[in-house]
Each structure stands twice: as C-alpha cells, then as structure tokens.
Amino acid sequence: MSAEEPTYSELGRPNPAFVNGLNPSLRSSQADSYRAESEGYPASSPNNSTALLPTAATQGAGAESAAYDTEPKRDATKRRRLLGFGVLAALMVVVLAVVLPVYFVVIKKHHGSAASSAISGNSGSGGNSTSGNSGGTPIVGAVTGGDGSTVTMANGQTFIYNNSFGGYWVEDPQDPFNSGAKPNSWTPALNETWTWGVDRVNGVNLGGWFVLEPFIAPALFQQYPAASDEWSLSELMIADGTQLAKMTEHYDTFITEQDIAQIAGAGLNWVRLPIPFWAVSAWSNVGVDDQGNIESEPFLVGVCWPYIVRFFGWARKYGIRVNLDLHTAPGSQNGYNHSGKGGQINFLNGIMGIANAQRMLDYIRIITEFISQPEYVDVVQMFGIVNEARIGDIGRDQLSAFYLEAHNMIRGITGYGEGKGPFISIHDGFQSLSSWADFLPGSDRINLDNHPYFAFSGNPNDQPIATSENPDDAGGQWPGLACNWGSLLNTSREQFGVTVAGEFSNGYNNCGLFLTGVNGTESYGDCTLWLDSSTWNATVKAGVEAFALASMDALGDWFFWTWKIGAAANGIVSSPLWSYQLGLEGGWMPTDPRKAVGKCDAINAGSKASFDGTFSAWQTGGTGAGTIAAAATKSFGQWPPATISNVPDDALTLMPTYTATGAVPTLTYTTPSVTATTSMPSLTVSVGNGWFDAADTALGVTTVAGCTYPAAWSALSLPAPTALCTGS
C-alpha cells in the first residue's frame, strides 16, 4: 500500500462500483430522527459545544497565572495542552458512559415501542407489544460496548469483544428486543433502513449447525461409518440411544455467542442460517414403502428450535441481520444429503410431489408467522423458502407455481410493502440467472438467490492457484474467472431485481473430507495439500485470498459458505477452503471485507455490467408492490400445478394429497436452559405468542383418514395409484 492510499479503516462504508453519484454517508442520523425540541433536546448539536469554549474570564485567569510561572512557557503551554486533552478525554468518557445508555434505553426504547405498536395494530394480533414499561418511566442501565469491552454471556462467563470497525453490541435484560446494535460503522443498525443497491451484504452461512452435513461436522459422521446424511445418522443414533444427547451437544457447542461476536468483528453484517423443517415438526408415518413397511422420519423434532431462538438473540445483540433459510423439504427437493436425505427427489416430483409441497407450505407459513412478529422482524429480514430445488427434475412451471403460491401466502400474513415481514428469497434452481428476468413483476420483495461454485463442475480444476505472493498476479487464473460472475449478477439486478449470492466459497476444487459425500470421489487428483492448511505456504495463502477477494468484489452481495468447518476425528479441519473462520486465523481471508472492493478492476478482469444501483420501487416494497398482472403468471398461475414430473397424465387426478383438517403447531419463544454463575433477571416484557396474524386461522394439512399413502421419501420407485382414495 502506498503512502497516499487510505487504510481500510478510513474508507467508511464502501461505495459500490455500480453506484454513480450516490453518497451513502449522507444517511441522516437515526438518533437525530428520534429527537424533538419538545423533549428537551437541543435543535442542533453545535450549540452544545459552547460550554467547552474559553470565556473572557477564564482567558484572563490563564494570563495572570502565567505571569507567576517560573517554568519555560513552552513547557507550560505543553502542560496546559495535556491538561486540556485530559479534560476532553474525561468528558468523552462521561459522554459515552451517559449518552449511549440513555440513547439505547430511553430514546431507542421510545422509538421501538412506537414502531411495535404500529406493527401490532396492522397485524390485528393486538397483544404483541414489546414494551415492558408501559408506565412511561425510563429504564436505565442498558449494557452496551464496543471494541475492547467485556461481554458477559448467559452462563456468567466473559470474553473481550474485538471490533475495530466501530461496531457495538447492545443487551438490556429489561429490554431484550432492543435493536440498536451495529456490527460496524458503515452498516445501518437493525432498527435503521437497509437500502438495497447502497448497503452491501457481506455475510457468512452457519452451515452444518442445524442441518447436518458430513463435510462440516465430519467427526460426528466418522462415529457412524454407515451414515451418509442426517436421516441415516439419526437412525443409527436412535439405535444406540444417543440421538438426543449428541444432537443437543452439537446444537449447544458447534456455534456459540463468541462466533457471532467474531463475525461482527470481522466486518461482516449478515448471517444466512440454514434450518430444517423438523425444527417445527416431523411425521412418524409418511407412507408405506415397496416392502410394505411404514416410513417414519427419524429426525429429532423441535429440539433445535430453542437454539435457533437463542441465535436470534445473539444476532440482535451484535447487530447482525439474518437470512433464515429453510434448507430441507419433505421428500427432498434436490436429493442431496443436506436436504435431510440423499437420493430421490419427491418434492413437486412424482406421485407424492403435491402432498410433500402441501407440507412445505405449512412449514413456511408457521415460520413466517413467528419471524414476522415485531419482536423479530428487525432481525430476520430475509426468508429463503426452499434451498436449491432442482428445476431439472421438478420443472420450471412447477417450481414457479410453488414460488407464487408461497409469495401470496406469506404476504397474506405480513401485508404488502416495505417493513412488513421479510424479503422472500427464491433459489435459481440451478438455471441461468438470465432465465429469471422479469419473473413475477409487481411482486413484493422477492430476491433471487444464486450459488456460484467451481468445485462442483465435474472438472479437475487442477490449474495452479499458488502462483505468486504478489496480489496483482496471485491466484493464477482463478481470480479472473471469479470476476466473470460480476456481470451475471449485475445483469440480474437490472433484469430481475435484488440478486444475492447466497453461497460461494474458496473451494475452486472439490477437495475436502466428505465434501463430495461420505463415499464421494474427487476429480481434482491428489488432494493431500488441501486437507490440512497447516502445510500451506505464503504463496498458497496469497492465491486463496486473491480468489476470495475477486469473488467478493464480483458478487457484490454475498454469503460465504461457511463460517466454520468442524475438525475431523484427527483434530484437523480437513476442508479448510470452506471455513471463513479458519481463513481469518490462517491469514488467507481478508480481515476487512472492504478490501475486496475494486479487486477485479485492479487485476483488469471481469465486468460489472451496467447496473446503476437503482431498483424499481416495487422490487423493494414501494409503489406497485403486490400488483402481479395475470399475464405474468399465465403458464404457472394454477395451484396445484396442472402437471407433475414423473406422473403419467392419466394418474394426475389420482395423486395422493393431504387434507387441511389438522392441528397447526405454533413456534414459541424458548431458549436453552443454562447454568449461570450469576443471577439473570427474568423477562418482564412480551415475547410474542408465535403467531403474527391473528386472522390466519386455517387448519394444517394431515392425512385423509382411512387412506394409505405411498412412502413420501421413496415414492419414485412405487407404482402410480389406480384409484383416488377419498377416505373412510
């Protein structure tokens, strides 16, 4: 870095390369927006500086005392200067100690209560106020801190918060839904507006935490060599009686509060959290297989939910926005191990395709009701409704019809327009981004999710990445190839709307323990180097970092997959290219993600296309949101879809479906119990009842009494029905 170049800490919020003439630093102060002269606040802050200016009297006193000073004037001046600095420093300490708690507890609390009342009024639920202080007496003593502060966790243990980017945490036990924290100086606080096209997503996934994957939690799978996915692992743990104990330990320890603090301290501002549908429920009877046996979902039901709620609290505490991703679907949406069970695709495919989709819509509905409550709407600002559904097997119109049905259901719960519920994230189905141009014009806040990877191309990808330590040519061809992603995503932002890379990694090859599956094979060749980062030299690290920076710059809004890879049984992280945390520790991930801005231009690679950072109003919940024209859904506007892949035409009307006569589970506020070394105050505020829209009283889907169903996860191998079952 030359002497003329500013350091990254001096850059402030990065100005996206595609934004012309926009100055994101002009955002008005959130604190100022709360202030009114009638509340006793000054009209403008400069007036407060009057008391710090010298008066004529003090100037005279200073001159008189100087006449009796026997020390050289230079030393006296220096001493007065030091004294002045000391006074100013003391004043700053007082200001920080007094103003910050007052702001977060009094000003912010006042604003938050007003906002909550407005939201509750719109929902019709009435009883979900976040205010535990309805009498109007300010609560004092909110806990907050920035870089170097001490954080006390729920169990009474402490750690030091390291954040050199101006971020600060907020945790007030008497106001647990305070959303005033910021992860860094350039990201809006949770209770401030996120502006798409100006604010940029720099995020990580927390993969493998609530949806197990062999390569992320390898040691757990190594205990059971026959396990290849969470379904088979669960069956084996049930057999030896350890499922509850081992899964609870994993949920409790794989990601901790310190991880979330480290994520904020790394300059990141979003987390994508994959969760399973069995956080809500699973079925003990999902049909009969080809051997006449009842198929039962073996997943551990509901146990992960308190840990998910606990995570929401951590995200709020450190100012991290959440993209909650429903990563699994009944029957499997892609046949991958991270769908819950590898093998067949029975979601919107085959004779149980509609029935499985009915269940999925129920899960989306139940989760939407919880996260749309005023207590959580500031934190969970994006909801991925189904991860990586494979259009090649399911069909474009079929998946589009599901997306439309889910959109209409979600907005029926949340209402239409900015601030009413989360963005709805839909995956591209492994189809080109350009094929989604003009999808559902007039919809309300849908974003397109893209997962660009080189690792799974099937090619050897053995071109060297360890070519130089010089940032200008480190990484060989790989940074330049990553830069090509930029034009694709920016064109999608122009033609579709908000487009985000929900997953990417440093895995330019497919090396990693269990990365291609428990019994998978690698196309790369000899993967020895890539299984243990302790053997990497400076050239390897420079190449990987160059690839990471180019990827980040090209993608613009991104979530790295993933934050943490667990160690294998030998104690070594054996998929190091996929761990952001390990990359920070090892020196091949940037300690400031803003370092990536301009990387592709610096190496003269890729193209940012022509997107200028401006979205249409309806795309972000403004004018026109919720006005989808019938012509835009002509080919897929029917639900259920008119045709289903792998179902003969003469059997379409005979497909098994569920009936909406069942009870609906409600997710509630609950967190894991802890043994604390210090007493924690009990909550005195509403935590919500788990159901945002009191007018949503429809029943849930269940089996038709007297009907026998094909096994929901293996129905593709079963014959099509010859008669419609209408029940007993």
UniProtKB/TrEMBL annotation:
GO terms for molecular function: glucan exo-1,3-beta-glucosidase activity. One of its GO terms (cellular component) is extracellular region. Its EC number is 3.2.1.58. The chain crosses the membrane at residues 82-106. The keyword Transmembrane helix applies. Residues 123-135 have a biased composition (Gly residues). Belongs to the glycosyl hydrolase 5 (cellulase A) family. PANTHER family: GLUCAN 1,3-BETA-GLUCOSIDASE 2, GLUCAN ENDO-1,6-BETA-GLUCOSIDASE B. Residues 22-32 have a biased composition (Polar residues). It catalyses: Successive hydrolysis of beta-D-glucose units from the non-reducing ends of (1->3)-beta-D-glucans, releasing alpha-glucose. This is glucan 1,3-beta-glucosidase. Residues 55-67 have a biased composition (Low complexity). Keywords: Cell wall biogenesis/degradation, Glycoprotein, Glycosidase, Hydrolase, Membrane, Transmembrane, Transmembrane helix. Residues 1-75, 115-141 are annotated as: Disordered. GO terms for biological process: cell wall organization; glucan catabolic process.
